Amino acid sequence: MEKLDAQPLYTRVKRALAERILSGIWAPGRLLPNEFQLAEEFGVSQGTVRKALDALAAEHLVERHQGRGTFVARHTSDTVHFRFFQLYDAGGRIQPDSRDVRVAVADPSGRERAALALAPEGRVIRITRTRTHEDHPIIDEQISLSEALFSGLLERETIPNTLYDLYQTDFGITVARVEENLRAAPASEATARRLDCPVGTPVLAIERVAFDYSGQPVEWRVSQCLTDSVFYHSTLK
């Protein structure tokens, strides 16, 4: 039986289970042992295990399915889109496509270095792309990643629309949360060219830092969005 310290019981069980997930012992999509088995292993009640699993589910580390069991959370294009994409039109949340995707390695700017907490010698992989909705360009996007974490990305022939499932399946990096800053900005010449709009057109600039479960920043993303046909929506609870 795994040794637990003097924390509340469910917190101790939750921490022990989380460590198995974060260390990769339990991979995304894996079925966890049932509550009875976990309760026996840790020497606690099934109610304590259930509370620990509920807490992990609230943090999106696991997914609980009635009649099937509890699984390590796995990003898919649909779940990622639902959790992390907040642009809507009159019909609901939009699902943009991508075009003009470019990938390159570069020395980081000061903002990239700070946002990604890079080592002094660290470099970045930059993904630039134009995202479209109903064949119209609406987002000019630059994504910066640590080369040390995503070196194999350069070898890929294609880059998918939703990247977070790719991060998880190909690089073992799960995005757990994001922080965003929003502001109004005028479209630069480069952005105006990619979005087919006049220079100076007002755009919504969304600056995002994505973090893994350990709190390490893994992605810095800047999206310049036209909002004549879409809007940003957020629900606060």
The CATH architecture category of the largest domain equals 3-Layer(aba) Sandwich
Class computed from helices, strands and strand pairing = alpha+beta
* CATH-derived topology of the largest domain: Chorismate lyase
Number of strands: 11
The separation of the N and C termini measures 39 Å
Number of discrete helical segments: 8
- How large, in whole angstroms, is the Cα Rg? 21 Å
CATH top level assignment of the largest domain = Alpha Beta
Q: How is the biggest beta sheet arranged?
A: 6 strands, antiparallel
Element string (H = helix, E = strand): HHHEEHEEEHEEHHEHEEE
The pLDDT mean sits at 89
Helix content: 25-40%
Write up this protein.
The protein has helices at 9-22, 35-42, 46-58, 77-84, 110-116, 147-150, 164-171, 189-195; strands spanning 62-65, 69-72, 87-89, 92-93, 97-106, 124-133, 136-146, 175-186, 202-212, 217-225, 231-232. It has a 6-stranded antiparallel beta sheet with strand order 5-6-7-10-9-8. Strands 4-3-11 form a 3-stranded antiparallel beta sheet, with no helix packed on it. A two-stranded antiparallel ribbon has the order 1-2. Strand 1 and strand 2 (69-72) form a beta hairpin. The protein is an alpha+beta fold and 237 residues long. It has 2 domains: 9-72, Arc Repressor Mutant, subunit A (Orthogonal Bundle); 77-232, Chorismate lyase-like (Chorismate lyase, 3-Layer(aba) Sandwich), CATH 3.40.1410.
Summarize the structure.
The chain has helices at residues 9-22, 35-42, 46-58, 77-84, 110-116, 147-150, 164-171, 189-195; strands spanning 62-65, 69-72, 87-89, 92-93, 97-106, 124-133, 136-146, 175-186, 202-212, 217-225, 231-232.
